[in-house]
Amino acid sequence: MIQLGAHVDQTNPIAEAAAMGATALQFFLGDPQGWKGPKIAYEGGAEALRADAQEAGVELWIHSPYVINLASTNNRIRIPSRKLLQQTVTTAAEIGAAGVIVHGGHVTKDDDPAVGFDNWRKAIDGLDMACPVLIENTAGGQNAMARRLERIDQLWTAISSAKGFEQVGFCLDTCHAHAGGNELVGLVEKVKAITGRIDLVHCNDSRDAFDSGADRHAALGQGQVDPEGLVEVVRLAGSSIILETPGDAASHATEIDYLKEKLA
Description:
Layout: E1 4-7, H1 13-20, E2 24-27, H2 45-56, E3 59-63, H3 75-94, E4 99-103, H4 113-125, E5 133-136, H5 149-159, E6 168-173, H6 174-179, H7 187-195, E7 200-203, E8 205-206, E9 217-218, H8 227-237, E10 240-243, H9 249-263
Parallel strand pairs: 1-2, 1-10, 2-3, 3-4, 4-5, 5-6, 6-7, 7-10
Antiparallel strand pairs: 8-9
């Protein structure tokens, strides 16, 4: 059975799940734009959140901070990125999270992308993965590690030799794919041919045009993503689905109902 839900604030996610009829949730464990380590805001802490989520039948996913860039050739970014991801993974495991999502990152225009791929390999090799880590495709950047399929292929080849590689999964974001220049129809098959798996779908519409490189999410049906392709991704991925769309619990409940109808 496919789990459906949305990205929420971490203060009271179980109540949020009940309000929108969700069976899966995603949230940050701190400031998504900052370098401070993760904190549990849930009353009762990690143990209470883990127990309450299990009792409610809600699957938990953690999105790592956006500042993390494991591909970077800049030591002042790459080394803190490794540290922050490790802290996030360790804390996510304490709450029983299904996985931690991290963006593919990038190198600068003057860098050799191969160095970025190898930096990813080194990062995975040195990571204690108490729960799975999912690499997410990104929307923009010509030297991004996971924007286009050929780069994802190169990234997967590089990290496949890392210790703990079996704990690395893939998160497919439909807005990022559209904005990154990847047609959604047929995309699941192409991604799985590279990664062997899709562990999570970020189901989002896009404010901007195909191949725009712009990471701007829109509510389902209110953007420029091909609706046929989006539904195909949801149906064929065979993974949990998380909405990262604008709106409150009521609007997310409507979107979840729409997806349930398409999956029926």
